[in-house]
Amino acid sequence: MATRALFGLNLAELTEWMASLGQKPYRARQVFEALYKQRVASVEEMTTLSAALRGEMAAAGWGVGLPEIAQTAVSVDGTERYLMKMADGETVETVWMPDGDGGERGDGSEAAEEEAGEVDGGGGGGRNGEADPSPSRCSGSG
Are the C-beta atoms of residues 77 and 142 closer than 8 Å to each other? Predict the structure, then answer.
């Protein structure tokens, strides 16, 4: 089992890490694109990297480290809350709101601001936030 998560590292961090392995900077871009564009679930799926490099990464304990959905809750208005367990064991609460909920200005600016990290995701709890979903609507996966 992988002990180090690649998911969450930015391009600069990946570039520094690849350099420490004696790899050229373009390898960091390949890993970055595999993680965030191709959305691979494992190091083995990073087929733009050589088998030897993938093996070296896996042997050193590196893995993708995607978050796991630990709990979900759905409100009567269709809002969905997720408690995500990260590779390091920490939890993050996130919320998805359906279209037409009245919480947006209608121009998509909130979504762009969230992607840029300029606003809170609206979950209220954030990292290690206390999700308090109704037990009758909550399902745990782990």
Answer: no
